[in-house]
Amino acid sequence: MIPGSHDDYRQLVLNPDARKDQSDVMKKQAATAYHLLVDAERAWRELRGRNIITEEEYTSYDVSMVCRGAGEITKPFHEVNSPVLQSGLSLEFHDQLFHPDPFSTSWYALQGQGGESIPYGEYLTMIYRAMSSVSIHGNLSCKRSEEEKQAIVGQYYEIFRQCVADVHPDSYDNHWIISRLVARKTM
To answer: Origin, by domain of life (predicted)?
Structure first.
């Protein structure tokens, strides 16, 4: 069983005796989350190295890798003086994919054991945004056609998948990685 995998997580939830090893699993999951951010950046850098994206596109993605929670996204639709609200736009719905997330859920369970859940949650949010196809798509030049943007997003995820397989073969089947790749296909 791969630490941090879906089956490993289920074992922690369903088998109380397995919880004694939970702190080791959490450490491995945190390390995996960090490595995934590095791999996501490597994949984006490789697109630039292959001249698939421009320097401006590369830089815009780098800058946008910041934590954005649901509140930050929905806020302009609720503030009275917001230009967004004054323009007549309204937010019909927003959705959080993969919530509750097994990593953040497990981390919150560690609060009683001294886990710092809020910084970890912000960190995961940053990674999710950095790796979302919407974020990648949005940072590509508006001069590109829709088909070209979709092709670049597909190339990014293929490079990212290969980075994970090459550098972290032990994490390759990780449920979290798979959920990100599935999210890309369904957005």
So the answer is: Eukaryota
